[in-house]
Amino acid sequence: MAAKTHALVAEFDTPEALMAAAEKTRDAGYKEIDAYSPFPIHGMGEAIGFGRPILAWVIFAGGLAGLALGFGLEYWASVINNPINVGGRPMNSWPSFVPIMFETTVLIAALTAVFGMLAFNGLPRHFHPIFNHPRFERASQDLFFLAVESKDPKFDSVETRTFLEGLAPAEVVEVEDE
Question: Is there a domain that residue 72 lies in?
């Protein structure tokens, strides 16, 4: 049974060449692209078309949920379940609820951040097909790679290979899924 193509990967020698290739690839209309380099390259996220991350909004919503949970817990415990009037204070004395509300806000926001990051990154993933590239281990040393994935709506094996070869890479390799 023939393996399915995961991506076409172009190899570059410099970060400048990778940046230029990523911008041209994005401008050509490819959406499912990724870049791999041994160090962070300023502006690469914009060059490959990353949008604004939604994770920050998910964490904010988790923090609000934690705030509401903390207030609800304190309100239920102090007003509904066990109303004890101490010193003539009102049952719903929200200033005394602030420490617990703060702690539940931080707890739920932190848990949302961890599990949201795992979910949005598709983790845990024990193996990624990009590791099938014969020289990909050099991505952590001295080479730069640009991958156009086959799930891209514009992906055509022949046309995409021709396009990537026009960007003057050292080589273009087809990476297969397993």
Answer: yes
Give domain status of residue 12, yes or no: yes
25 and 72 within one domain: no
Residues 6 or more apart from 76 whose CB is under 8 A from it? Answer: none
Cα–Cα separations (whole angstroms), residue 175 to 13, 47, 115, 122, 153: 19, 22, 30, 19, 18
Task: Taking the CA atoms of 17, 6, 127 and 57 in sequence, report the sign of the dihedral they define.
Answer: positive
Say how many domains are in the chain: 2
Residue 62 lies inside a defined structural domain of this protein:
yes
Nearest CA to 24 among 158, 131, 142, 165? 165
CB 174 within 8 A of CB 168: no
Taking only the tens place, the pLDDT of each residue in 14-59 is: 999 999 999 999 999 999 999 999 999 999 999 998 888 899 999 9
Cα(114)–Cα(117) distance, rounded to whole angstroms? 5
pLDDT at 2: 62
pLDDT of residue 114: 98
Counting as low any pLDDT under 70, the low residues of the chain are 1-2
Residue 9's domain comprises 1-38+147-178
Contact present, 112 and 62 (Cβ < 8 Å): yes
Q: How high is the pLDDT of residue 84?
A: 86
Region of residue 154 (left: phi > 0; alpha: psi -120 to 50; beta: else):
alpha
